[in-house]
Amino acid sequence: MKPLECPCGGASPERRPNDRAPLYADCCARFVEGRALPATAMELMRSRYTAYVLGDTPYLRATWADETRPPDLDASADPATRWLGLQIRRHEQTDANYALVEFVARYKVGGRAHRLHETSRFVRNAEARWLYIDGEVNNA
After folding, report:
1. Considering its fold, how many domains does the chain have in total?
2. CA–CA separation, 79 vs 81, rounded Å?
3. Is 5 inside any structural domain?
4. Residue 24 and residue 43 in contact, taking contact as beta carbons nearer than 8 Å
5. Which residues, in sequence order, are CB contacts of 78 under 8 Å at separation 6+?
6. Per-residue pLDDT, 5
7. Rounded CA gap, 29 and 3, in Å?
8. Each residue's pLDDT tens digit, 51-77
């Protein structure tokens, strides 16, 4: 079932807490459904978060660099996980083909709240597609 509001909430470093979330159809749907390619690493980050919320493993696999993609990736593996929100703290284009995105994703597992604070690395490949490489978890 497709959501009305986009799960990513339109996350960006400039977004204010009270800003209304964009419609899924106007935000990440075009990427997750394969109708367009994300133009920036930040758009890819938002669409990948949305894919996790929706349990869309094929999209996550397609947007993960081959050399770092885990062979057993399954976004639907834990039905007890409930994603609560995405905050993008920083988007840094390091050069034409590399970018960093620092984010915090909040979620619950079995009723217990968690947060993932990560700085992710992205690369634009020869076909001009942005791909997730890996991330460094920030414990602070």
Report:
1. 1
2. 5
3. no
4. no
5. 109
6. 96
7. 10
8. 999 999 999 999 999 999 999 999 886
